[in-house]
Amino acid sequence: MRKFTLALTLGVLTAAPALAQDITFTSADAELMVACTDATLESLHADDAQGASAAPLRDCIGAASGPCMETDEGMTTIGMTECLARETDWWDSQLNVDYAALREVLDEDSAEALQTAQRAWIDWRDAKCEFEYTFWADGTIRSIYYGSCVLDLTAERAIDLKTYVGWGEL
């Protein structure tokens, strides 16, 4: 029985990257993220930031996953991984909206170049985060490092795409 439990536990932990992709953000997550991004944008507009980069939006990375990890459910390895995955899902949804909007306004050559770049970025993100996962192979922390990597890189890419289409009226 103990071998079965150990095997099941190891199976769940090693499947963490695959499981994380099935987790979606909650309405509470979305409210936290929108509040952060809206406040950041209002601050940028108040400072007459026309043409400014969206760099301050990077401060919003963790706006939902941080509070999630402070809950009882978020204080376990699995809970932390789920918190990271939920926020990643929110950033990924923003990335997809802006990617589609950007493709609509680009000429054919630029749209094709964007698609090539996006595919290369996905491959790079996945390879980089897989390295994080395998590097920390001797501990359960690996799923947290993996989740943090995917969150950070997805958020950064979403923000980068946002600078091309403008978030609000940047």
From TrEMBL:
UniProt keywords, alphabetically: Signal
Signal peptide start and end residues: 1-20
Segments forming a coiled coil: none
Top-rank taxon: Bacteria
Positions of the Lysozyme inhibitor LprI-like N-terminal domain: 68-161
InterPro entries attached to this UniProt entry: LprI-like_N
PANTHER family documented for this protein: PERIPLASMIC PROTEIN (PTHR39176:SF1), PERIPLASMIC PROTEIN-RELATED (PTHR39176)
UniProt name for this protein: Uncharacterized conserved protein YecT, DUF1311 family
Organism: Pelagibacterium luteolum
Upper classification of the organism: Bacteria, Pseudomonadati, Pseudomonadota, Alphaproteobacteria, Hyphomicrobiales
